[in-house]
Design brief:
heterodimer; A: alpha+beta; Rieske Iron-sulfur Protein; 8-stranded antiparallel β-sheet; 7-stranded antiparallel β-sheet; 11 helices; B: mainly alpha; 4 helices; 77% helix
């Protein structure tokens, strides 16, 4: 009988061994609330994390409050059509500014003392701040009291945020994956209300990443794909330190009764005629590209064992057939729902105290190990920085 | 004034911020006390900011003219 303590250690060096020898992340990374907070800082707030999509705020003045790992954020499309992310907190008394998604007709007015902010974050009025009817005070400098803006960047319509503000520029941090899909760096059109859905799953967000980026499970969990998308038609995508995923060599386009397909993204290499790729852009965004549509899944961690998946589908042109879009959405929803029992089952499995993180298939689990290795390296870096600061 | 006061309270109750712009502006114009006028004009101005009301510039100019707003 092995000593139980060995299973409860946080041996990240074991995770970082080569895939054939490595163990997976220890249980604590899935079930321990303290680890959830540590990973929030190391993996999500210090990196470029997915928050939402620009299509969530399609028109100027649209505002959506989002609780992101306990952090109250406000997504706004300003009057100049720029998408911005602010702390959803008044600079006066820290009141939450916007409670529900809504259109900002004029200014963002705090419901407490009515300090008002422009949609670009400027503080534009401080009523009665100098006494009744006196809206200025020499010590309350509006230029210093605008909304706190969170560093953000839009790529593939996903709004990425770097909460701590210390990550390299987005184009640098994500250079490899941007380069890989440079051919797809073209206008994307969200399919609208029929092309988005949300799944609430009882799992740690990392298990959703891990399941997404490997094809090993396809013949067992998605047997419907087996007829044309066989396991041997897939390949691993592994960029250690950056991203991982899977590719398929047998993508078949959806067709309506007349054989019509969705329009293609322009000027793609012929290899994409029958290929598709699915990448987990670390930490929490799952992306897919095909010749005629793409999707983005933003994982919003809620707790150690709860995750919201926001799924959005995109097309190469704005006016695609709504019936085909609905069918495509249904197809993907079916696939993603088939994954729920495994990500929830793996979560429950991690409460087994002697589970040692598991072992990987050297041939099939590279993309998953790639993610574990990234998690372990980022946590180690975070701990080292924290220790150095003490 | 009591009728206007009732109308203001009713508009607050209904969260009718557009109505509050003109109601507070009326209150501002109905008083000879400049401090009271600026108080009501401020209320009107803030709801004008909130709603993007067309009277916004007019109210802003009034408050600036009395050194109450930037």
């Amino acid at each position: 009988m092995k000593d139980l303590r060995m299973y409860q250690s946080d041996d990240l060096d074991a995770v970082r061994r080569p895939v054939s020898l490595a163990n997976g992340l220890p249980n604590a990374h899935y079930v321990d609330p303290n680890m959830f907070l540590e990973e929030r800082d190391a993996l999500l707030f210090s990196q470029w994390a997915g928050l939402a999509v620009a299509a969530d705020v399609p028109e100027a003045g649209d505002a959506v409050p989002i609780d992101f790992l306990g952090m109250p954020l406000l997504l706004v499309r300003d009057r100049e059509n720029q998408v911005r992310v602010f702390q959803n907190t008044c600079r006066h008394r820290g009141m939450i500014l916007v409670e529900e998604p809504r259109k900002i007709e004029g200014a963002i007015r705090c419901p407490y003392h009515s300090w008002c902010y422009a949609t670009d974050g400027r503080l534009v009025s401080t009523p009665h701040v100098g006494g009744p009817g006196q809206n200025t005070h020499p010590d309350v400098k509006r230029s210093e009291l605008g909304l706190t803006e969170i560093r953000s960047h839009i790529w593939r319509d996903v709004i990425w945020v770097n909460i701590h503000g210390n990550a390299p520029e987005f184009e640098v941090a994500m250079a490899d994956v941007i380069e890989r899909w440079a051919e797809f760096d073209k206008p994307l059109y969200h399919g609208g209300a029929d092309s988005k859905f949300q799944l609430k799953v009882k799992t740690n967000w990392k298990l959703a990443v891990e399941n997404y980026c490997e094809s090993y499970h396809l013949p067992w969990v998605h047997p419907g794909l087996n007829s044309y998308s066989r396991l041997e038609d897939h390949y691993n995508i592994e960029s250690y330190g950056n991203y991982s995923g899977q590719g398929s060599l047998v993508y078949r386009q959806l067709k309506d009764a007349n054989g019509t397909t969705f329009p293609d993204f322009p000027e793609l290499d012929s290899k994409w005629d029958t290929s598709a790729e699915y990448i987990a852009a670390y930490p929490n965004v799952l992306l897919g590209v095909h010749r005629d549509h793409a999707f983005a899944i933003v994982l919003v961690p809620q707790s150690t064992d709860e995750t919201i998946e926001n799924i959005h589908l995109y097309y190469a042109q704005p006016d695609t057939d709504p019936q085909m879009r609905a069918e495509n959405t249904h197809l993907w929803k079916t696939v993603f729902e088939e994954d729920i029992f495994v990500v929830e089952g793996m979560q429950r499995g991690r409460h087994a105290v002697t589970f040692d993180g598991g072992r990987f298939s050297p041939a099939m689990d590279g993309p998953t190990h790639c993610f574990h290795d990234w998690v372990a390296s980022q946590v180690q870096t975070h701990r080292a920085a924290k220790q150095a600061a003490e | 004034m009591s009728t206007l006061n009732d109308a203001i309270l009713e508009a607050h109750d209904q969260r009718d911020f557009v109505a509050l712009v003109t109601l507070y502006q009326r209150a501002s114009m109905e008083t000879d006390d400049i401090d009271e006028a600026c108080f009501f004009a401020t209320q009107a101005y803030i709801f004008a900011l909130d709603t993007g009301h067309p009277n916004l510039n007019e109210l802003h100019q009034f408050l600036c003219a009395h050194n109450r707003e930037e």
